[in-house]
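Hi,

Apologies if this is the wrong queue. I'm a grad student, and the batch job for AMP-binding protein from Dermabacter vaginalis produced an output file that my downstream script rejects. I'm not sure whether the problem is my script or the file. Here is the sequence I used:
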Amino acid sequence: MAPAKPHSHDPAHRLSARPLPLNASELLDFAIANFRSRTALEMAGTRVSYGQLGRRIRCLAQGLLDSGIRAGDRVAIVLPMSIDAVIAFHAVLRIGAIAVQHSDREPMMRLSREFADYSPVAVIIAEYRLNALAGLDEEARPKTVITVQAPELPKQAPRRLTFTGALAEIAKAGGKGVMRVAAPPKGPAQLPLSFGTRAKLKDLLGSAPLPLDYPYPEPNDLAALVYEGGTRTSALGAMITHGNLTALAHQSLEYLETAPAGTETGYALWPLHSTIGIADTLTTSLFYGRHTILFPRFDHSALVRALKKNPPSVISGDTEVFRFLAEYARTTGKAPMIRLALSPIRREHTPNLRDWARDLGWPLVVSFDGAEAGVALFLRTSVEGREHTVGTPLPSIEVRVVDVHDRGHVVGPGTVGKLMIKGPQVFHGYWKKPDETTSVLSADGWVLTSSLASIDTDGYVTLIPSPEH
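Support response: The file is valid. Your script probably expects a header line. Output copied below for reference.
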């Protein structure tokens, strides 16, 4: 399919994506059936085919049911980037439960605040993070704890963490280049409190597979809660449905894909608890039959080894990833032949993407994303004269700019205001927070972002730095 042409913010000039009457689990099963023998996931030399992935998801799904987890239950996932984390996410979705992804390095106080917000029935957690459960209030304590042994990650977890992206600029200004992180606890992990059920993921993977005719969730059923906003004292869980996930995949594939499904290799460098991690690694890449290589952290040597052994055709990552790749290409004279490169763009820290694209020999595609609006805007760096923008909306997405004091007043082209986004990927509100929901989500489906922006007459969106920056 040819790339979509730039289109205006006027709905009459936008492309319309065909609706997908599928939930995320059904769409993944369709990919599994079509690419059964193809490698789905790879990490640290371990490969899992689509057929193996499907069986493991069904086995864990049955194990979750046997553990008392039911449709509509919230299941916390506190795991590092790993094959097990991908399996856990889709097993939760398959039985109609709601997955809530957390970083395996999330501070105890934030984890406790978010658990208190959505009250998970169960948690799938790396053994080295069990102590994080000690800070939970009794009412937020999950009844079921499913542990995952991942000794290789704690052993390798660095005591010093290099700043990247915007943090690198802040650190540089402050004369710092690294930050201290907690070292993994020594000795066997201990569960600090008593819980109703304790199980091991590896044991649940030994369950009989979930029957193939087990009913799928409905497109409007909740699939995930995403915690990207909030404050030091409050948590905001963006409600994402199965329909939102399939829309995200369909929109990006409609706009970007030109290669046949089941033929590409992709690199995953975004955390699985992020919007991009969910939209790309956990859903779109698998739905499209990609061979996805997981990188638990951005490691220069690991990335170079992978480039030589399994060069990607698709890669998504932080700006630091592409800065490194551009430098690698300049110093070695070797640029990987990548068809599609995706990187979220940030307002005040936009790098010179065109320079990197020139050094690499292929265009980058930058995106604007957020838990509430999904991945809504794309810009190809090959589009002349548009480097200062974040591109145009994806198919089936509408954007508009409204007065900063009155979201009911839409301003004209070139005028700065608050960016609003509408489309089938837009979230369904914040978990049990109706007032916060109505403050950003209109009755007709428009989400008010926190971004200042303007839209030109061709539909390109430019983000404007906030006055406080």
